[in-house]
Specification:
Blueprint lengths: L8 H4 L1 E6 L2 E6 L9 H11 L1 E6 L5 E7 L3 H13 L3 E12 L5 H9 L3 E2 L26 E8 L4 H17 L5 H14 L7 H9 L10 H12 L17 E4 L4 E3 L4 H4 L16 E2 L5 E5 L4 E11 L10 E14 L5 H11 L4 E5 L7 E5 L15 H6 E16 L5 H30 L1
Antiparallel strand pairs: 1-2, 1-16, 3-4, 4-16, 5-12, 6-10, 7-9, 7-12, 8-11, 13-16, 14-15
Helix pairs in contact: 3-12
Amino acid sequence: MPPIPEPDTSATGGIYDVNESGIQFRHTPSLPTPANGDEFLKRLKSSFQFNILERPSKNELVFELIGVDVSFANALRRIMIAEIPTMALEHVYMWNNSGLIHDEVLSHRLGLVPLNVDPRLFDEYGQDVGEDGEAVLSDRNTIVFRMNVVCGKSKVDDELLQKQRNSEFKAEGLVSGYDVEEAQLKKNEKGGNKKIGDDDDEMKEDVEEPSVMNLSVADRAAADAAASNLNKSSTPIDTPHRPFTRHVYTRDLLWCPQGDQLARFPLHSSGVGSGVGGGIRPLHEDILLAKLRPGQVIEFEAHARKGIGKDHAKWSPVATASYRLMPSIEIVKPIYDELAEELVNWMEPGVFKLEETDEVDHRVKAVVVNPYACTMSRNFMRNPALKESIKMSRIPNHFIFSVESVGMMEPAVIVAEALKVLKNKAGNLSGLTYEAEEMNE
């Protein structure tokens, strides 16, 4: 855990005091407004800090920003949600769909399937224009998927039909989830039998140290359960005395490599996100798309293109991106013995700890050990003695960010890309300001 800086109220003009009913801003003497941009930058450089607090999993990142205004923190959060480009299925050309799910609903489900591909390796659609002025499709701006699924009369018949059709697809150069799994297994056999989940085990070893955010035992157990089921394929349950049901998963999507895409994204590659990688595939191969009964068919072609979450949520690279203000906790009156044990074990677990004391008539006392773990529950205020002994506040210019990636980009990459976008926005604004000044002159 990084050293906790003392709150500088002169830079923020005050601090948020926490009481039973909520928070209240308390004004304090502040620094004068910067005379010019140079003075502002000098103050920012002297107080700004960026610290990585922890990485609970491959798709999660917790970091802190210190010494910035709330407008900067909120702009960074909004950019991560809505302005970082990713690849998603945009156009679906439905050729045949005799299943129960309507074309529009199935297309919407397909658009929300995250793709395990780095969007920085693709251009925006419309950047290349032909002689007629129309946008040109190319292997640099479009990813093509197909699906051709037919439900057999029974489970045995369906497996034979699927095996036959997979051979035909492979002969055409199409890549399904089964082909990627086969290529990954061959790579593992040649590379020392390293399993797909080994990277997750290495990540788990890195985070065995105590959590800064005081993750509970239940949270750890849930994370372990999710990791253990990450690479297990879903098996549908057959209901007796009913017609056979074919479950259509994302592994049935067929990637159609265009141009040199197969050379750029080989099947044995490790991928860019948290999926198994290999070629260009859905991030998770076991997402249920539809269910078919004997004789029903789904056949379509889908094109994935680059976009941002501002246009549609399917392009957002994060599941969550949020921040909270850093708590500041001060013990104004010593807390001893039974009262200290009640505070440490029941009121605010992880925030305080017990220390032995040499004072007469006292065994232990409570001290602040980890304010990052404070959830602002204010449970200690139920006890009048604890309420008088603890002063709690929130620092206005100290933000704790929690970023959870969908998986196509790692959270650290998303933060870096968001900072680039924010830098470009600031540059554009600066340029417009100079132009306005020149026009006024």
